[in-house]
Amino acid sequence: MPSQRLPTYFLSHGGGPWPWMKDQVGNRYDRLEASLAKIRHSLGDAPRAVLVVTGHWEEPHFTVSSSDRPGMLYDYYGFPPHTYRITYPAPGSPTLAARVEALLNAGGIVCGHDANRGFDHGTFSLMQPLYPEAQRPVVQLSLQDGFDPELHIKAGRLLAPLRDEGVLIIGSGSSYHNLRQWYSGSTETSHQFDAWLQQTLVRSDPAERERRLIAWESAPAARAAHPREEHLLPLMVAVGAAENEQGVCVYHQDDFNGSIALSAFRFGQIVT
User: Fold this and answer.
1) pLDDT for 4-19, tens place per residue?
2) What is the distance between the alpha carbons of residues 228 and 223, in angstroms, rounded to a whole number?
3) Is the terminal CB of the chain with fewer CB neighbours within 10 Å at N or C?
């Protein structure tokens, strides 16, 4: 059993299958990609498996992917033909999936499993730059489609033991996800909400952090930044699993796509 308690993360997975579109996107994702490479380097070989809470999977109850060889789910449209043939050939882990399911059910949160679910782009577009060799087992966890922040924090808290078992818990979403405003140039709301996230996740104590996240809709520009909160809810699971550990910003830029503020966060320390 690993002796190192792994941190948790809330990371941006970027837009569509961007790691396979370097000719089309140019240097747009360079800083995001560099931040993911830095995370990989800092963790070393400590993670034995990865649990991705993906903002691209919603179910009436939490559901975990349980295939030992997940396929691919191309859950986007309008991208170049080659992006519908890409693969991320990491194995799954029925054993880890069963552990996730058992932890949630034992804590009073209903969780099932899906042996047919493939990797969605909330997973493979993040994992490709993070673990390009695709050797570590990856298991996905859905959101619960009621989007209750307190429930997702509780789910994370129940999953915290995985951190002592070599499982890296990643909430995969985005700190800003208003696609209608993405190319309009009207992105001041991303900066307002990002400032609130920095105050909440980096400069608030854990109790205040949880209170603020449960009431996230009262944050400045909250609904402008997240008209629908599926890309924010993975954060709640990552924070719940972090228990009382402090957050730090591991990626930030004020000018993504010209003017959007985006950030990513780690909760807990990296022990080397």
Assistant:
1) 899 999 999 999 999 9
2) 7
3) N
